[in-house]
C-alpha cells in the first residue's frame, strides 16, 4: 500500500504564550517544523506529504518546506481549519492516493523515530487502525474543581496517546465524515475511529517522542537534541 503523511502544523500556540507559533520556534537553529518534516522526507516508505498550516502562513511555510534537506517528495501545503480535527480532515481530503495508508502526525513532535512510524504502518496494513503510545507510569489522580483529590485511579491498562496515528485511508475518512455528520468532536483521530466502532491497536512508542506545547517542553527538546548530537558525534 502507498503511504501518505498528513503533518498537522495548524496550532495557534496558545499554551506557549508567545508571539511565534510553536511549530516555528527555533530548535537547534531550525524551526521545530523543519525537524519534523526531515523525519518523514527521509523515509522511503512515505511517498507524499500533506502539510497542514494556518492559512495566513501558507507563503512562509512554502518557503520553509522548499529548504527541507534532501526533499525529493512532493510536500503539498493545505490550509488548516478552526480546530485540529478540521485541519486533519482538510489534509486527508488533499491526499492523492485514496486507497493506501494515511499517517497523521503532529508537527510539534520532532523526535519520533522512523522505526516507530514503520511499526505503525505495518500494523495499520494488517488491522486498519493503530496509534503510537506509552503505558502510564505515574500514579493517576482524579481531582475536583477546587483541586482536592477525589480518587486514585488504577493505571493498569492505561496508555498515553502519541502520534503518529495510522489508518487505512478509507477507514479514517469514513470516521471523519461520520463525526462531521453527527457533530462529534474527538480528542484525537483514534477517538473518531473508535466512535465509528472499529478497533484501534496500540503500538509501543518512546519517551522522547514529546509534544512541544510549552516553554518547558522546548527546553527539554533542546536537551534531547543535544544528547542526540553527542551520541552521533555531530
Your description of this structure?
There is one protein chain. The chain has helices spanning 32-41, 58-66, 84-93, 114-127, 169-182, 189-196, 215-232, and strands at residues 3-8, 26-27, 30-31, 46-53, 74-79, 101-106, 129-135, 140-143, 149-153, 159-168, 201-204. Helices cover 35% and strands 26% of the residues. Strand 4, helix 2 and strand 5 form a beta-alpha-beta unit. It has a single domain, classed as Spore Coat Polysaccharide Biosynthesis Protein SpsA, Chain A (Alpha-Beta Complex), CATH 3.90.550.10. The protein has 7 helices and 11 strands. The longest helix has 18 residues, at 215-232. Strands 5-4-1-6-10-7-11 form a 7-stranded mixed beta sheet, with helices on both faces. Strands 2-3 form a two-stranded antiparallel ribbon. It is α/β, with parallel strands linked by helices and 234 residues long.
Amino acid at each position: 500500500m502507498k503511504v501518505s503523511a498528513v503533518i498537522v502544523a495548524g496550532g495557534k500556540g496558545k499554551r506557549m504564550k508567545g508571539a511565534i507559533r510553536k511549530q516555528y520556534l527555533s530548535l537547534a537553529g531550525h524551526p521545530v517544523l523543519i525537524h519534523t518534516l526531515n523525519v518523514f522526507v527521509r523515509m522511503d516508505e512515505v511517498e507524499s506529504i500533506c502539510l497542514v498550516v494556518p492559512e495566513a502562513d501558507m507563503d512562509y511555510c512554502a518557503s520553509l518546506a522548499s529548504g527541507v534537506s534532501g526533499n525529493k517528495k512532493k510536500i503539498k501545503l493545505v490550509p488548516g481549519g478552526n480546530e485540529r480535527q478540521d485541519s486533519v480532515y482538510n489534509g486527508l481530503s488533499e491526499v492523492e492516493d485514496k486507497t493506501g495508508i494515511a499517517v497523521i502526525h503532529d508537527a510539534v513532535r520532532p523526535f519520533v523515530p522512523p522505526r516507530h512510524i514503520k511499526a505503525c504502518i505495518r500494523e495499520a496494513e494488517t488491522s486498519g487502525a493503530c496509534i503510537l503510545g506509552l503505558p502510564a507510569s505515574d500514579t493517576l489522580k482524579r481531582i475536583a474543581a477546587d483541586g482536592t483529590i477525589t480518587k486514585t485511579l488504577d493505571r493498569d491498562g492505561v496508555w498515553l496517546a502519541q502520534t503518529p496515528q495510522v489508518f487505512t485511508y478509507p477507514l479514517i475518512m469514513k470516521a471523519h465524515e461520520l463525526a462531521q455528520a453527527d457533530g462529534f468532536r474527538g480528542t484525537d483521530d483514534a477517538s473518531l475511529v473508535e466512535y465509528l466502532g472499529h478497533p484501534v491497536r496500540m503500538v509501543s512508542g518512546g519517551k522522547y517522542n514529546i509534544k512541544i506545547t510549552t516553554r518547558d517542553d522546548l527546553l527539554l527538546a533542546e536537551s534531547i537534541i543535544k544528547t542526540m548530537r553527542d551520541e552521533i558525534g555531530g
